[in-house]
Design goal:
The protein has about 230 residues and is mostly helical. It has seven helices and four strands; from the N terminus they run βαααααβαββα.
């Protein structure tokens, strides 16, 4: 087993060739008073902005743009806290790992609960997606301890791509409005879904596939090693 302080970070995302230079440039141009902790707090504030935008979309769909702005703020803070620490050589591996990922889980709860409370997404569907995301997150953290590999990208998809998908979904919801359909459980009972529940369901399935396949692969490797 490896110490978390010496883990290898794997973030092989589709947008990595574009994102990494941007983050390095931003880290080099942020004023000295901006610290990694400042960026972490900024990421949390972004999650609250997302929640507010989604809740307010019940009154006016224009607030979906506020939610999209929240995703940009969340990306800015969440992506730059570790980048800034590494750029300035002021890493605190154990503290940073703990605080960053505890708050990541909190942020995801805010985001998915907010999404489920919009008039566009079924609440149960949003919660299922949250469960799948948290399951994969737990697996990532356990694998970091077991194998020393902190892998946050699967099939070229990572948090940045998921944020862009969310912003795209917000844009479609704004311009296309609500489009619902019902699935009958019985002759007298049915559940109402929207067309936007379909991509959320697909993301849930993908996250669960990543969770089960990675879990099986890791368990098989450990069994072969006799550990």
């Amino acid at each position: 087993m490896r110490e978390i302080r010496t883990h290898e970070r794997v973030n092989d995302i589709l947008l990595g060739p574009l994102e990494r230079p941007v983050l390095q440039w931003l880290a080099g141009h942020l004023p000295a008073w901006v610290t990694p902790d400042t960026m972490t707090i900024t990421g949390v504030l972004g999650a609250f902005v997302i929640l507010a935008g989604y809740l307010l979309s019940n009154f006016n769909h224009t607030f979906l743009w506020l939610a999209s702005l929240g995703f940009v703020i969340n990306w800015f803070g969440d992506s730059l806290d570790g980048t800034l620490a590494r750029y300035r050589h002021i890493e605190r591996p154990m503290y940073g790992f703990f605080v960053d990922h505890v708050l990541d889980a909190f942020n995801e709860v805010l985001i998915f609960i907010g999404l489920g409370l919009t008039p566009y997404i079924n609440f149960n569907n949003a919660c299922l997606c949250l469960i799948a995301y948290l399951l994969l997150s737990v697996l990532v953290y356990i694998r970091t301890y077991i194998s020393g590999e902190f892998k946050i990208s699967y099939s070229k998809l990572g948090p940045t791509e998921l944020r862009l998908i969310a912003i795209s979904l917000n844009t479609f919801m704004f311009f296309l409005g609500k489009h619902t359909f019902s699935l009958g459980l019985s002759a007298v009972q049915s559940i109402t879904y929207s067309v936007y529940d379909i991509p959320i369901g697909i993301i849930t399935i993908l996250l669960m596939i990543f969770f089960f396949t990675t879990s099986y692969k890791q368990a098989s490797e450990l069994a072969q090693l006799g550990e």
